[in-house]
Amino acid sequence: MSARDKGRADPLLERRARLLGPAYRLFYSRPLHIVKGEGTRLYDADGVEYLDAYNNVACVGHCHPRVVEALTRQAATLNTHTRYLGTGILDYAEQLLATFPPPLDQVMLTCSGSEANDLACRLACAATGASGFIVTGAAYHGVTATVAALSPSLGPGVALSRCARTVPAPSARWQASAEVGERFGASVREAIAALAADGIRPAALLVDTLFASDGLRPDPPGFLGPAVAAIRDAGGLFIADEVQAGFGRTGSEMWGFARHGLIPDLVTLGKPMGNGHPIAGVVGRSSVLAALAERTRYFNTFGGNPVSCAVGAAVLDVIRDEGLLANVLAVGASLAAGLRTLQARHQAIVDVRAAGLFAAVEIGAAPAGPSASERARGLVDALRDRRVLVGLSGPDDDVLKIRPPLVFTSADADILLSALDEALIEVA
Hints:
Blueprint: H1 3-20, E1 34-38, E2 41-44, E3 49-52, H2 65-75, H3 88-97, E4 106-110, H4 113-128, E5 132-136, H5 145-148, E6 164-167, H6 177-197, E7 202-208, H7 225-233, E8 237-241, E9 266-269, E10 280-284, H8 286-293, H9 306-321, H10 324-345, E11 349-354, E12 359-363, H11 372-385, E13 388-389, E14 391-393, E15 399-402, H12 410-427
Parallel strand pairs: 3-13, 5-6, 5-7, 7-8, 8-9
Antiparallel strand pairs: 1-2, 2-3, 4-10, 9-10, 11-12, 12-15, 14-15
Helix pairs in contact: 2-9, 3-9, 4-8, 6-7, 10-12, 11-12
């Protein structure tokens, strides 16, 4: 760290710790002070430019002009709650639901993905009369008390719910493709039996449809079928967590669950819905949503407010008008090919997994040297020093998580690949 960096960072770190407390975490061994974003770029307090290959929340790019304009126009007109009649929320609901298959015909709006997953769990329990949930071993579904207890990735400090059982994430790497679905389905049936042994009926199988927190497990397409059949045979629902997988992330479809030829009972959405603005929601079958309404009302003061709905509509317009699904397919294919070329050249890369503009680079341990997770953290920092930002994933934090805005270009991918090549040489 330069003297200038140290002089600026230390007071800011002290102030942050003093005001926000110790639970917050920062990226990178040398944290970044970001002050501006534009497209696929972030800028620090010194004006240094970084390529953002991590932030899916700003799905159509940081500070997209159409999104900013929609936000400011509506904010200057009206912002209030959903207990008044208004057309904005209805227009947006129609626009959003049009991207889903017909059985998914209603939406309930929230302010965050955590709230959306929490609400989906309530809906599943109301519809089934059951209380059990099945999640994967490194799942992350949010920070409310309910979904934190269904998020093993938060670590042993957050106890798993007594009504939850975990299953191993599917892996095409260790199994023949034809076996992945059957083995994952069998693990779900075993979890259902484990719940039953404790007198608990399953309400839902809740999975991120790309298994992002488990290190990204997208292949083979269709493998989720047996697991979904197992939960439905047991009277439970299938909840597709699309916070990371949705809004065109795979390029081939708008939603990750479509990769498996399935229609969920409930779909949860997070802040990519508003390009970072706090809007999220649950899309579901009307029969499932009706079960909760029979018992209680639903009210979320600013879930679905006019400003949020204007922003959400602008995001959908940008995805359509700028042809972002096609961009994701083309750039994602180029990025994945480049990563596999690096894998052939660098022993540190154990595996490359990709779907659209979501890629995972699994890192192995060095012979008689750093562990896989230490090596992966070193690569993240080495990329940061080359002004390219990525993250970590997987149960052991040994997977580079590459998940850029959907406006990522081929030139951006080339910058990333060149920086990663250099970083691999340095860390090796």
